[in-house]
Design goal:
The chain is an alpha+beta fold. Helix content is 34%, strand content 24%. Helix 1 packs across helix 2. The two termini are 30 Å apart.
Amino acid sequence: MKRLASAYHRSRAPVAANVGRHMSEITVASTSELSEVAAFYATCGYGGGVSQADTVLVSRICGQLVGVVRLCPQEGVVVLRGMQVHPVFWRQGVGSRLLSTCIPFLNAGRTFCLPYTHLVSFYGGAGFSIVESSELPAFLAARLSSYLARGEQVLAMCRVTPNHTIERDGPQAARPSL
């Protein structure tokens, strides 16, 4: 990562923008990559962890890990968690590409996320809508409550694919595994 960061600072934004938008490769992480993902999360200051049960998408530029997102099956739903992009590559399309790459994995029901409030339009572009905490599964409502109690500026969002509704299927409805 140091190599990428120093190259970015020497060359300024145009090169990094070109790299971030056109040369990043997004793949599903293998089990052997999970320790690298955990280290990346630590570098970004994210403490949510990673599990073998998660579907983990990674973005690499020149072989270096620059972005990660996890799709976590839990209690019959999927939770989009841990969207992190290395600060050197913020606002250069890495997060947008990660999010759009998630979409095929989300087309079997309902997916929730608890994003920062300033990211509502970012997630809204992928079909997520704001929901009340009463519409969340109990484990996620508890997580949201703990984040809010710590002063985090987050809210609940849900992406519902066709033929699924929160009202009809309920917050604990079964969802096919990823």
